[in-house]
Amino acid sequence: MAEEKTVALDCDQYEDFKEEFIKAFKAEIAKLQSGGDNTALMQRIDEIARVQNLSAEQITNFINRIGQIDIKPVVEVQPPDMTDVNRAFGKINVSTEILAEAMKRINAEVKGALSDEKIKKAVQLF
Predict the structure, then answer these.
(1) Ramachandran bin of 35, using left for φ above 0, alpha for ψ from -120 to 50, beta for the remaining angles
(2) Which residues, at least 6 apart from 44, have a Cβ–Cβ distance to it below 8 Å?
(3) pLDDT tens-digit profile of 35-45?
(4) Comparing C-alpha atoms, which of 52, 50, 70 is closest to residue 60?
(5) Is pTM beyond 0.85 here?
């Protein structure tokens, strides 16, 4: 089994190769039309076709490798400023504490204002 040589090409090298391929193909056709050797021409065309197939495979592999690259964004987003939100929640917490203390005072005042006897009379009236 013959060992094949592989050559990696970048995009510019591939374009250069393609141009050379077209020039070589046109030159071989011109030789054929002027009475050149058909066997040599056929071997040259087979060699060029084999190299072309190899180049196409390399380009496909290159494109697949590019598709596997995990591209991460360069822009970093800072977390939002939560100081105003935290301050608002702090005020809400303070307000609930003040309300709880006020409710305790109101309950104490109501209990003090109404003795047990007044509560019993109020309940009996209803």
Answers:
(1) left
(2) 24, 28
(3) 656 677 677 77
(4) 52
(5) no
